[in-house]
Specification:
With 91 residues, the protein is of the alpha+beta class. Helix content is 52%, strand content 26%. The protein is built from three helices and three strands. A three-stranded antiparallel sheet has the order 2-1-3. The N and C termini lie far apart (45 Å).
Length: 91
């Protein structure tokens, strides 16, 4: 086997591995949720996906709370607030 053939095989192997990782990551995300929260005199919305509705909604709320909460205590408190809106759909 020539050096060129070996390089092509290695490149194809790497591409196949990257494609496999991308596919397994995307295929596990079954539900997408958009959540809006009001916290500390502010309002923010975010969208996230997850394996199930509970996980997707939690991820979206955590993301929405990011700009609104300052510090760990506020982040935890924001995560426990009832969302203003929550819309989920299967992907």
């Amino acid at each position: 086997m020539t050096n060129r053939s070996r390089r092509i095989l290695v490149a194809l192997g790497i591409l196949a591995f990257v494609a496999f990782l991308a596919w397994t990551t995307v295929s596990s995300q079954k539900v997408e949720c958009q959540v809006c929260v009001e916290f500390a005199k502010g309002r923010n919305c975010a969208t996230a996906s997850g394996a199930d509705e509970k996980m997707a909604a939690e991820n979206a709320q955590t993301t929405a709370c990011g700009p609104l909460a300052s510090g760990m205590d506020a982040t935890i408190a924001c995560g426990k607030v009832e969302p203003v809106t929550r819309q989920c759909r299967g992907t």
